[in-house]
Amino acid sequence: MENCGLLSENNVPVPLKSISVQVLVQDHVATVSSTLQYVNEEERPLEALFVFPLPADAAVCHFSAKIGEQEIVAEVQDRETARDRYDDAVSSGQQAFLLEESSESPDVFRLSVGCLSAGQNAAVTIIYVTELAVQDDHSLRFCLPAVLNPRYTPAGSAAGIVSEISSGAVPYTLTLSVHVSSPKPISKLESSCTLDPLVFLHSDHTQATVNLSPGHMFDKDVELFVYYQDTHQPSAIVEAGVTTAPPGSLMRDTVVMISLYPEFPEEVMSSLASRGEFVFVIDRSGSMGDMMHHGKGAQMRIESAKDTLLLLLKSLPVGCYFNIYGFGSRFESFFPQSVEYNQDTVDKALKRVKEMKADMGGTEILQPLKHIYSQPCYPDHPRQLFVFTDGEVFNTKEVLDLVKSHAHSHRCFSFGIGEGASAALITGMAREGSGHAQFITDTDRMQPKVMQSLRFALQPAVLNISVDWTLPDDVTVDTLSPPINVLFQGQRTLIYAQLKGESSGGSEGTVTVKYSLKDQPVANQLHFCLKPTEKTQLSIHRLAARTLIRSLEQEERSGAADVEGIRSRMVELSVQAGVSSVHTAFIAVNKDSRQTVKGPLLQRRVPTYDLYETCCLMEACDDWDIETDCNDGAVLSLQADSEGEQRDAPELQKDSLLQLVSLQKASGCWDLDATLADVFGKTEDELTNQKPAQVDGSVWATLLALIWLYGCKIEQQVEWQFVAMKAASWIGSQKGEISIPDHIHSVSVHQETFQQISSVL
C-alpha cells in the first residue's frame, strides 16, 4: 500500500489551508459544493496530491479552479486522455488540475494540483449530488466524511488505494452552511457537531438554513439529520432535460425519481419468520481495537460487536441454523458449517464470543465470503449474512461483485463501525446482497441498529417484484435503475426513469410496484404530476446517470462480451452528463500560465485527519479520568499516580440488560436462580418465596424477566424485542394457570396476579 500524507523530512507545511462547504438539501437530494483553498508557501513551483473521501453514491458533476481572478472550469474526458493532458501541462509549466475517481473504490477521489507558482493561491471547487439515506427514526442523513483510513491490501496484491496518515492535527479548517428546502414542513435538524441555531425562512417551515459553529477542525465526520413531517409519504420529482443535448439522449429527455415506501399488510407482519440460516461475519482486524468514539465511557469496537453478538444469538428463532466467522488477514469459523440452534450450540458459541479479540491483523473480507458462499444452503432456511466491519479494504469492487454473484442464495446486511468506514463497501454489500446497510458512528449504540436489521431479515421474503407504468399516449419510459430485488416494510425504494416523448393530453402518470408476500398479491401505487419540478439544477439527471454508469461498470467487470462497447457507452454518458466515472476524469489547464520551471517540482501529500492517531498522542501526554454516569452501564475509572503508572482498574460492570439476556436459554426461558436475582437486585429467596405453588420455577422466572424488561428497559425495547417474543412463545407452550400480561402477549391475566408478579420486583 502506498502511503501519502506524511509531512516531508524538513517538515514543510502542506498547501491546503481551508475547506468551505455549502449544502443545498432539496427534499431527499443534497447538492454539495466544496471549495479547497491552496497556498504555495514554497520558493519554487509545487505539485500537490489530495486524496479524500466522498459519499459512495455521489455523482461529482462540477470541478473548477480559480487562480487570482481567473476561473478555469474543468471538462470531463476519457481518463487516459485527461492524465496525458495533465502530465503534458505540468511538464511544460502550465497550471493544471486533475480530479479522478479511484479505480478500486468509488468513495475515494484524488485531486492533483500541478505547477502552482511560488506564493500563489488557488481555490478549487468540487460539486456533487447525492441521495440522503433514510434512518430508522425517519430522518434523512447527510455525511461529510472527514476520515479516509488506510485501506488494507493483502500480501501479493499489486493494487492499492493511496491513503493518508496524518502525523498530527490537520492543518486546515472547515466552514459549512446548509440550506434545506422541501414541500414538506421541516421539523428539526440535528448534527453530531455543534451547530448555530436553525433559522426558518418561511412561516410554513418549508425552508431553513443552519451553519456549523466556528472553530470546527474536521476531527470527525460531519453528520446532519434532517427531519420532515410525513417523511414516509411516497413522492416523485420530475425534472426537465436540456434542450441543447442530443435528441434521444438522457440529458435531453425528462427524468423522474420515484421514492416509494412499501407498506405490508399487518397480518403478514405479525408473524415473523422462524426459519433461516444466520451467518455473522465479524471484523477482528487490529483497527477493531479502536474505541467506538472518543468521549467518556466509550467501548472498543470489538467489545461492542461482542455485546451485539450476544443479543443476536439470544434473539434467533428456535430451529434455525447459525455460524460465526472472524476475519482479518486470515479467517476462522466457530463451526465447520452452520449448526442447528439449540442450547448446546449457543453455549459453545457464546464461550467463543467472550474470547474474541481484535488480533487477526489486516482486513481481508474476500476470502471468508468465498468460503461462506462455497457452503451448501439448507433447504427452507434462507441464508442471511450479517457483516460487521470498520470497512477499510482496498478491493471494494471485487467484494461487491462476489456478493452480487451470490445474491440469488442469500441476503446481506452490513454494518459500518466507526469513523472512516467505507460507505462504498457497506452500502454496496447491502445493495448487491438485497439487504440493508447501517452505520454506527460517534456515540451511536450498535445494538438498536443491528436489531432493526434482524427484524428486516425475519420479514417474509418479497417475491415476483415488478414495476408497471401508466403514462399518457406518446410518452414512453425507460427504467434506469437496476431491477428491484428486495423490499422491506417502510424502507425507501428509489426508481429512476427516463420519459421519452411529450404528452398531448394527460398531465399525470402512475407507477405501481407489485409483488407477492406469503402468497398474497400486494401493490403499492403512486400518482404523480408530469409537470417538471422547478429549480432542481439537473441533480436528478445526474443521479440517474450515476445509477446507469454504476450498472454499466458492474456489467463490464462481470466479463460481458462487448466490453469495449460498454466502456464507450459509459464514457459517452459520463461526458454528456458531466459526472465522474471510473473511465473518465475532470481536467482543467490554465493555458495562460506557461512559465519556465526552474528545477524539479516539489511534491506534497495533503493529509486528511486520522482521529485515532491523534487520540493516541493525547493518551501519551495526558492523564485520563474516564467514567460513565449511568445506573447500570459500564463504570470505569482510570487514574494515573504521580509517577505516571496506571492503577489497577476495577472490572467493568456488565450492563444489566445484557446480563439478563445472557442468562436466557435457547428455548426462551430463564432459570430461577441467584444469578437472575442478582440482575434484579434481589436475593434468590426474595424471588422464590412469592412464587405461587402451582407455577413452575422457570415459568415464574421468565414472567419476572418479561415484567422487568417492560417495566425497567422499555426505552431499549428495540434491542430485546425478539428475546421477549421468544420468552412469551415459550410460556405459551407451557401448561399452567398463570398467563402473560396483555401488553406482553395476547393471553390475558388476572389483575391481582399481575400485581403479585410486579411486587416481587
From TrEMBL:
Domain of life: Eukaryota
Residue span(s) of domain VIT: 1-130
PROSITE patterns: VIT, VWFA
InterPro entries reported for this sequence: VIT, VWF_A, vWFA_dom_sf
VWFA domain location: 277-454
Record protein name field: von Willebrand factor A domain-containing protein 5A-like
Organism, as annotated: Cyprinus carpio carpio
